[in-house]
């Protein structure tokens, strides 16, 4: 009976965590460069139940020997696996702003493998697909959160005005003169990146990713990469998670009512 409580409760917890993940995806449906999280619900290892019996040999004064009869398997509940971003290329949105930049990867698998390089608060390099940049009061190219965008040499990019141009290879020019080249990093294992929030990703031990080659990406000025969240799919998944949570809740209530009867009615001693 008590195992049923734990199994139903684990189902409720898994669905609650899944709902939290889906809610975060939906909240970032309009965040440029956002990559939706994905996960799956798995069951814990199952237990094999056996009934212990005793068997006597067909002889006089024979000792009893233990015997085992297989009953079946028993599930011990479920859990939500670790969430991972889904690194697929998002659609491009034309904004017309010169400070908005979007990376389009040239691979055939539609995977988002190239990233802008950003100077993190701790001084180490971070990576992002969000090209919604701006110029601060000193003319440095930054994100909305104030973090600096880096060039191919790992330096901050300072410009005279927002009337600059960026070609498909990431070269930044002012008045026809090239002043910097955007730092674009590449990884063939994006799942190994560490999600840090605000669209930023880090690496294990702050290891730097190699530079992306010109043939691996195309840069588009005046565009933003939209979130790759499929809102219709997320809403459907949220509804399914809610119904599954309700089902586990009703199972838990049924166990609770059964325990109540066992304690207060079945075990009652009539005087």
UniProtKB/TrEMBL annotation:
<keyword id="KW-0282">Flagellum</keyword>
<dbReference type="InterPro" id="IPR053967">
    <property type="entry name" value="LlgE_F_G-like_D1"/>
</dbReference>
<dbReference type="Pfam" id="PF06429">
    <property type="entry name" value="Flg_bbr_C"/>
</dbReference>
<keyword id="KW-0966">Cell projection</keyword>
<comment type="similarity">
    <text>Belongs to the flagella basal body rod proteins family.</text>
</comment>
<protein>
    <submittedName>
        <fullName>Flagellar hook-basal body protein</fullName>
    </submittedName>
</protein>
<feature type="domain" description="Flagellar hook protein FlgE/F/G-like D1">
    <location>
        <begin position="113"/>
        <end position="173"/>
    </location>
</feature>
<keyword id="KW-0975">Bacterial flagellum</keyword>
<dbReference type="InterPro" id="IPR001444">
    <property type="entry name" value="Flag_bb_rod_N"/>
</dbReference>
<dbReference type="Pfam" id="PF00460">
    <property type="entry name" value="Flg_bb_rod"/>
</dbReference>
<feature type="domain" description="Flagellar basal-body/hook protein C-terminal">
    <location>
        <begin position="221"/>
        <end position="264"/>
    </location>
</feature>
<dbReference type="InterPro" id="IPR019776">
    <property type="entry name" value="Flagellar_basal_body_rod_CS"/>
</dbReference>
<dbReference type="Pfam" id="PF22692">
    <property type="entry name" value="LlgE_F_G_D1"/>
</dbReference>
<feature type="domain" description="Flagellar basal body rod protein N-terminal">
    <location>
        <begin position="5"/>
        <end position="35"/>
    </location>
</feature>
<dbReference type="InterPro" id="IPR020013">
    <property type="entry name" value="Flagellar_FlgE/F/G"/>
</dbReference>
<dbReference type="InterPro" id="IPR010930">
    <property type="entry name" value="Flg_bb/hook_C_dom"/>
</dbReference>
<dbReference type="InterPro" id="IPR037925">
    <property type="entry name" value="FlgE/F/G-like"/>
</dbReference>
<keyword id="KW-0969">Cilium</keyword>
């Amino acid at each position: 009976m008590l195992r049923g409580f734990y199994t139903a409760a684990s189902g409720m917890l898994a669905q609650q965590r899944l709902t939290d993940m889906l809610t975060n995806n939906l909240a970032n449906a309009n965040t440029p460069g956002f990559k939706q999280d994905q996960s799956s619900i798995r069951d814990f290892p199952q237990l094999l139940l056996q009934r212990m019996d005793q068997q006597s040999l067909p002889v006089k004064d024979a000792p009893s020997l233990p015997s085992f009869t297989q009953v079946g398997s028993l599930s011990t509940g479920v859990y939500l696996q670790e969430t991972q971003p889904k690194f697929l290329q998002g659609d491009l949105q034309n904004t017309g702003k010169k400070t908005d930049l979007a990376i389009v990867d040239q691979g055939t698998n539609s995977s988002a493998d190239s990233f802008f390089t950003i100077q993190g608060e701790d001084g180490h390099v971070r990576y992002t697909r969000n090209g919604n940049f701006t110029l601060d009061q000193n003319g440095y190219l930054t994100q909305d959160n104030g973090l600096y965008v880096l060039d191919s040499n790992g330096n901050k990019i300072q410009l005279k005005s927002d009337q600059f141009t960026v070609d498909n290879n990431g070269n930044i020019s002012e008045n026809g003169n090239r002043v910097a080249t955007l730092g674009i990093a590449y990884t063939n294992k994006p799942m190994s990146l560490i999600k840090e929030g605000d669209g930023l990703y880090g690496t294990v031990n702050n290891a730097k990713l190699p530079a992306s080659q010109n043939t691996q990406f195309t840069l588009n000025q005046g565009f933003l990469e939209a979130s790759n969240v499929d809102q219709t799919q997320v809403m459907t998944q949220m509804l399914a998670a809610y119904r599954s949570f309700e089902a586990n809740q009703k199972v838990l209530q049924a166990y609770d009512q059964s325990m109540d009867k066992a304690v207060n009615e079945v075990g009652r001693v009539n005087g």
